[in-house]
Amino acid sequence: MAEKKKSPVKIVLAILSGLVLIACGILLIWAGLRPDDRDGRIVYAGAFFIILGLASLAYLLPPIPIRDKKEKLRRKAPDPQVLLDAYENEQLDHAAFMKAFGKAFVYYSTPYGDDEEGNPKLFLATDAGGQVYLPVFTTLEKAAAYHRQEGRAAFMIMNDPFLKVLQTTSAINRGTAPTPLGLIVDPPESPLAIAAGELEAAEAWMAENNR
């Protein structure tokens, strides 16, 4: 987002008010410290005026950009759709693709939700062999379209590195998950699906190669 330009009038007012307040503060401190008539209250007032003046001048400082660690990782992460296209076109071998894809940010939602009639439901993808997958997506639009098409009433879409989603799903499988979950990217026509039985091996390999 582009930085909003400060008004020239406000800049001039900030400079003038800041300098005047600081000058008044210095004079008050000087008056309060006179050997013949010391007055601590005047000194404190002078210090307060100086602080106000500095605060006014601080308006001239540029805003400090604040970015969390996740945002920095997201900016540096490869585009998951570009990686999938390169993998499908055999421009990347499986090992190179999996290593890079572990850092790519994908979109997903929790599997638990309500349908449009308010009934609780698990929103998961299932292949012809009965394997159940947590669906993840390369774009926010694809994630939203999938859940709307599945008749989901309301949902929150999260955005994390594929490796983190894989690790979380693997941990769920080791816990009390009623059905072991795999991961599938951009269902139903997905070039990447990791079955539940392959999840731990994929997690270990991807974690080792993304240090």
What key phrases describe this protein's structure?
6-stranded mixed β-sheet; alpha+beta; 211 residues; 8 strands
What does this structure look like?
This protein is an alpha+beta fold and 211 residues long. Helices cover 49% and strands 14% of the residues. It contains eight helices and eight strands. Helix 1 packs antiparallel against helix 2 and helix 7 packs across helix 8. The radius of gyration is 29 Å and the shape is elongated. The two termini are 32 Å apart. The model has no long low-confidence stretch (mean pLDDT 86).
Q: Note the beta-strand portion.
A: 5-15%
Q: Shape from CA axes? A: elongated
So how many helices?
A: 8
Helix % is: 40-55%
Radius of gyration: 29 Å
Q: Kindly state the mean pLDDT as a whole number?
A: 86
- Specify the structural class: alpha+beta
Distance between the termini: 32 Å
pLDDT < 50 runs, ≥5 residues: none
Largest sheet: 6 strands, mixed
For the secondary structure, the number of strands is 8
Order of helices and strands: HHHHHEEEEEHEHEEH
